């Protein structure tokens, strides 16, 4: 850029450039490298929602072992711009994606402990740009015909800057009867988990959402509409997702030989304010599950064919058109999450 352009204006221009361009610009001058490497610029760049969206799709191939990862640019010609990514796991090691935030993905090595349940949450503090990991450890509830016994949560927080785990006060935690599920999303500095509260409804419990403020490190319970809260039943399932930086709950209702999905969105980040956006009802398509939602509201789903190959499709709501993404798996492992490229961890 010309020396005649004020440096403050140069900074504003660079905040809107792709990350690959910025990585090259770090070699142009000491002033640009110092700016791009600064924590303030990295945080400002990460919260700029004008950057290009991507979708990371994880699936198991129809033939062979392991997992496949594909990154797809979420643009007007979706899914043409896609590239395969290396599997981060060693052979024979099971992994799951804890969550993603500001272009970073947290991956967890799966293990099993029969005496406790551990659920993780991952996000980036919006004020400091510091990646943060939350670990919730709660003993499995003891149930019998007369009573249910719940034990208190044990919550620890890890920040990349400190590189240590520390406990947080129990006064900031939900009731002991609430148990988190692995289903989580991160929006505007909050981690949201799908949860079940078995306090009053016996063995099934009812659905709810628990949020964690990454700045204050406090939990909050979020109520769902009655039809979603009562969906913890044999013919109903609820998952959560993200649409345009808003929390979305996807309700599955099994009707005879088909599955119908209802999509609900929390309005303006206000807890307990969910509105139903649309229903996915495709009589001629057997949907296995909804994997996620594109930035233009189009749901991404995997089908349930007669053979072992499950295909990933996009449903264009207005035209009712179904588009094939040319991604096929065996149906045992599917996920799709949105992200934007980031400068976080540039100096790590």
From TrEMBL:
InterPro entries: F-box-assoc_dom_typ1 (IPR006527), F-box-assoc_interact_dom (IPR017451), F-box-like_dom_sf (IPR036047), F-box_dom (IPR001810), SCF_F-box_component (IPR050796). Residues 1-45 form the F-box domain. PROSITE patterns: FBOX (PS50181). SUPFAM superfamilies: F-box domain. It comes from the Eukaryota. PANTHER family: BNACNNG10540D PROTEIN, F-BOX DOMAIN-CONTAINING PROTEIN. This is F-box domain-containing protein. It comes from Helianthus annuus.
């Amino acid at each position: 850029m010309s020396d005649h352009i004020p440096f403050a204006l140069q900074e504003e221009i660079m905040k809107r450039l792709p990350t690959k361009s910025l990585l090259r610009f770090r070699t142009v001058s000491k002033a640009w490298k110092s700016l791009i490497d600064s924590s303030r610029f990295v945080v400002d760049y990460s919260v700029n929602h004008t950057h290009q969206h991507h979708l990371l799709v994880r699936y198991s191939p129809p033939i062979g072992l392991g997992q496949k990862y594909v990154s797809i640019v979420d643009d007007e010609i979706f899914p043409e711009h896609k590239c395969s990514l290396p599997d981060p796991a060693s052979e024979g090691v099971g992994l799951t994606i804890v969550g993603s935030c500001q272009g970073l993905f947290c991956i967890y090595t799966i293990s099993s402990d029969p005496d406790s349940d551990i659920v993780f949450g991952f996000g980036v503090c919006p004020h400091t740009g510091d990646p943060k990991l939350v670990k919730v450890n709660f003993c499995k509830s003891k149930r019998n015909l007369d009573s249910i016994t719940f034990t208190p949560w044990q919550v620890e927080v890890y920040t990349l800057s400190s590189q240590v785990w520390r406990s947080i006060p129990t006064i900031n935690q939900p009731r002991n009867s609430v148990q988190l599920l692995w289903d989580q999303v991160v929006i505007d500095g909050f981690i949201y988990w799908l949860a079940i509260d078995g306090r009053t409804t016996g063995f099934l419990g009812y659905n709810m959402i628990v949020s964690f403020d990454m700045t204050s490190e406090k939990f909050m319970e979020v109520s769902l509409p009655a039809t979603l809260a009562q969906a913890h039943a044999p013919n109903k399932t609820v998952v959560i997702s993200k649409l345009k930086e808003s929390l979305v709950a996807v309700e599955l209702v099994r009707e005879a030989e088909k599955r119908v999905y209802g999509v609900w969105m929390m309005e303006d980040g206000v807890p307990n304010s969910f509105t139903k956006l649309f229903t996915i009802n495709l009589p001629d398509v057997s949907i296995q599950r909804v994997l996620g939602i594109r930035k233009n509201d189009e749901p991404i789903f995997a089908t349930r064919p007669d053979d072992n190959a499950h295909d990933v499709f996009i449903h264009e709501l207005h035209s009712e058109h179904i588009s094939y993404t040319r991604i096929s798996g065996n149906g045992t492992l599917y996920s799709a999450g949105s992200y934007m490229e980031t400068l976080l961890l540039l100096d790590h």
